[in-house]
Design a protein that fits this description.
mainly alpha, 13 helices, 83% helix
Length: 340
């Protein structure tokens, strides 16, 4: 009996049990996972933006938070009112254009090549989930808007009361659940340091890729630029696979407007943009732990997509990096024992 009690008092065993309990609790509230993830992402990104702003603007913390949220909510509102009908129309036109190409050109060699690429089950799964992400976002706009609004409100209150929240939460250190508090604090710090940083990096990389891609598409004369920009940004949040998914409709549209020459120019431009991401953005924004081999990246995306659906394509890599951090998987060389 004493041995069992001693086993459960070991730090590693206790940490594993508490981590398992956290997973069980999250699984039990999986219907709220969209709201939980959106709230965390908004809170983390806005906290970083507030911290950046306070370095250059000497104002009260709460005033800066309210100002930044007012600007962002205002921009979102104007964008929804002014551009949502345009975006919806452009996306429907893109889908119609791709459908017409596939039905009117059954013997087209380019279409045959794309079908052979997409025919594998996993790539097909990525493409379907990528497009379903876009379609669900715009067809179920009311539900998505409510979740985004709630996430913004929760993140606003979190940042406004951040010092008070930290002070109040610290009271649990001397409570009867202190062991749980210290372990949850450990996992919380690890989670924000890895998951949050990777999400932030993916967000910045997606923005840069979208900006560069839109310039290329405008030069090549692509139609429906706003719709394509929205598609490239959301798919850009998916590491590696997002490039493959977005390349399919872009290649088809490029072939319809300019033939094989436009497709070649497009592929060269995408390769250059991807090289900028791989050799400039990733090393600066990602830590060494996120520099995963492509094989690992795809394996993680396969499993995360099967378990979490569309969200798995976006959060799969950050969650995996979080687990690596917990397991202390680093790039440091092990210390070799010295011989006599």
């Amino acid at each position: 009996m004493d041995s069992i009690t001693g086993l459960f008092q070991k730090k590693g065993v206790k940490r594993f049990i508490i981590f398992a309990l956290i997973i069980i609790i999250l699984f039990s509230v999986r219907s709220m996972m969209n709201l939980i993830l959106l709230t965390f992402i908004f809170s983390f990104l806005m906290n970083r933006l507030v911290s950046f702003t306070t370095k250059y603007v000497r104002l009260n913390h709460k005033l800066i938070v309210i100002f930044l949220y007012t600007v962002i909510v205002g921009l979102l509102t104007v964008s929804l009112v002014k551009y949502l009908p345009i975006i919806t129309l452009e996306i429907s036109q893109l889908i119609k254009q791709i459908t017409n190409f596939s039905t009117q050109s059954p013997d087209n060699p380019l279409l045959g090549f794309l079908e052979s690429v997409i025919s594998s089950e996993q790539i097909k799964s990525y493409v379907e989930n990528g497009f379903s992400f876009l379609l669900k976002s715009f067809t179920d706009i009311s539900k998505t808007s409510i979740q985004v609004l709630l996430a913004i409100i929760l993140s606003l209150f979190f940042l406004l009361e951040k010092p008070r929240l930290i002070e109040f939460t610290g009271k649990f250190k001397n409570s009867k659940i202190a062991p749980f508090y210290y372990e949850i604090e450990f996992f919380g710090k690890k989670f924000s340091r890895t998951f949050g940083k990777v999400i932030e990096a993916q967000f910045i990389i997606a923005l840069v890729n979208t900006f560069l891609s839109v310039i290329v598409l405008m030069i090549l004369g692509f139609p429906q630029i706003i719709g394509l920009a929205i598609m490239i940004f959301f798919l850009g949040l998916i590491p590696v696979a997002g490039v493959i998914i977005s390349l399919v409709p872009l290649t088809i549209i490029g072939f319809t407007i300019g033939g094989i020459v436009t497709v070649v120019y497009l592929l060269i431009a995408i390769m250059v943009i991807h090289a900028i991401e791989a050799y400039i953005l990733n090393p600066k924004l990602m830590s060494s732990k996120t520099d995963l081999p492509v094989f690992y990246t795809f394996i993680v995306l396969i499993f995360s997509q099967n378990f979490f659906g569309v969200w798995g394509l976006i959060i799969g890599i950050p969650v995996f990096v979080f687990l690596l951090d917990i397991l202390d998987v680093t790039d440091k060389e092990p210390v070799q024992p010295t011989g006599n």
